[in-house]
Give the backbone structure.
Amino acid sequence: MNRSIIITRYATALVKYVRETGHGDIVCSEAEALVAQLHALPQLRRMVEAADDVVTPFDKKKLLQTALGGRVSPEMSRFLTLLNRSGRMALVQDILRDFVDLYRRSIGVRKAHLTVVREPSERLLQRLRALVRQKTGDDVVIEVDVDPSLVGGFVFDIDDYLLDASVSRQLERVREQFIEWNRRII
């Protein structure tokens, strides 16, 4: 079966399960923490993705629970057990990443990415949240990255929408216009 179909099915099933139990916010925060740990610790990810004859399924579950500080919600524990039994533990990072996105959308929250030259003002963040709320009706969680190469302005990315208001991009456009203008002259 197609890998992306498997990931989506498990993520969707987890969303339905946590919506029924009412503990979606807890499981979502655990999933975010686990995805961050798997991203930050490549050795942990390799051990979880290893074949079952190298690291037993029980040990994989214990590793993930330890990465979350040892205390895991019953819903997350049951989900990790399900992944173990079905032999899908190698997909846990992708499944949990999809789960976070699907769960947030199900409660009307979107995730956005903001890249700026320096830490953004609260006013800019409020304006971006208001813009998203106006266009989609959803609230937004904004991740901020600082990138001095932008020179000024910002790049805002949400879903399939990219707003590039950076000085570096504007300078690139001016450069492209000069090149085009010079081609017409010659």
Notes: The chain has a mean pLDDT of 85.
